[in-house]
């Protein structure tokens, strides 16, 4: 695991315990794409196009958005889903996805699938289940409102069913589903998987007493809380090649609650336990903003815990190493607010992490590794402007803070305008020709969208890109500014598809209602 003595830079290679090498410390972490078919499906051409953008700029590692192992426990409806049966046909889209992520560097970009299960957070209507069929969860504790009130509580009751406690057979099936996901990744040509044990999804639900009221061997008791995660990790290791990368994501915010005493000790103990297992190549820790440790002063339990945890995680690994010197320990991947070159340097120089997780900034700046490398070679990396400035212009969504005061907050559905903005930006990026030219100009239209606009366009979109060569008349018709183009988009917004090339003499542009939307504008 450990870095060699001396200063570690952004472009220092590092070796995982499985033997695979990252060519640099920059990791494009998982971001939900919202690009798959409604009610879930395989990756499509838009995923391929989007991830090819990151691949061509030599990131050390690129993770996909959360891929669901259960088609009946989706998050926001347009999730990529692991197939039930492995065949040449079902694996083909995943092979194309892996191929689109092939890097150009000497070692190549490592490409991983993030595996997830929605559990009780799988929403009614868009979660992949029949209407009002409850989801599975460790116990029968429903998702609760963070800001209680009769209206918010009513919305939560409508959006989230009280979950059904999982039987031991259900738990066995979940283990098998995650293993199947790892096999799909391996056989499709991915270099590994990350287990999503954060953000309140199923694996995190087993860990937290706020969602797990079981009293058996899968309870949230400190000595049992990680049992399901451990079973999955061990089973995956047995099912994949030795050099297959296996990572885990945990979130300090999942532990930050006034209902849980000793939150910091609990999360660090879990990290220590995971490290002692062996066979885990990296642990991603997130849950706050590394840039703003002073935010603790305003009394945020989440930020306070993250500020301490992000600095204590490495010390925790060192304590494991002192007890078992020969144990192959995981690397720490830190995600949260790393949006300037100065912060990247600070994290590595302070030894707060081995790897640098870049999330939303990777959408704004997919060519970040090349930009930093060019500036380093030119000797201008630490020069101003740029050293302490964001990699690229960030969206100004300050108006959302005012609007949110008057709206009920629903987890996932009300996840935030920032999430929506970057979803729309990823959609735009997917449709940007390669190589990228004038990226700032490409994203400028999204900068102009307000909070309501980005929320609208995240959820409402239609494919008007022809699958085959379209006539000039058709291309003119679907122009965003044209009346016909607006009509086509409205039709798509309500679930009506349009012909790929109606031609100049077509008398109608309306086709039957459909359930399968495959691409965004």
Defining key terms:
521 residues; alpha/beta; 2 domains; 17 helices; 12 strands
CATH topology category name of the largest domain: TIM Barrel
Domain module tally:
2
Whole-angstrom Rg: 23 Å
Helices, by number, come to 17
Characterize the overall form. Answer: globular
Average of per-residue pLDDT values: 80
CATH class of the largest domain: Alpha Beta
Strand and helix order? EEEHEHEEHEHEHHEHEHEHEHHHHHHHH
Main sheet summary? 8 strands, parallel, barrel
Provide the spatial order of strands within the biggest beta sheet: 3-4-5-8-9-10-11-12
Number of strands: 12
The helix-and-strand class reads alpha/beta
Span between termini:
43 Å
Helical fraction equals 25-40%
Portion in beta strands: 5-15%
**CATH superfamily annotation of the largest domain:** Aldolase class I
CATH architecture of the largest domain: Alpha-Beta Barrel
Keywords: Flavoprotein, FMN, Oxidoreductase
Pfam family, one: Oxidored_FMN
Domain NADH:flavin oxidoreductase/NADH oxidase N-terminal: 10-374
GO molecular function: FMN binding; oxidoreductase activity
Protein described:
It is a single chain. Helices cover 37% and strands 10% of the residues. The chain contains 17 helices and twelve strands. The chain is globular and about 60 Å long. It has two domains: 14-459, Alpha-Beta Barrel (TIM Barrel), CATH 3.20.20.70; 468-521, no CATH class. The longest helix is centred in the middle third of the chain and has 23 residues, at 301-323. The strands form three sheets. An eight-stranded parallel β-barrel has the order 3-4-5-8-9-10-11-12, surrounded by five helices. A two-stranded antiparallel sheet has the order 1-2. Helix 13 packs antiparallel against helix 14. Mean pLDDT is 80; it is low at 289-299, 464-486 and 488-521. The protein is an alpha/beta fold and 521 residues long.
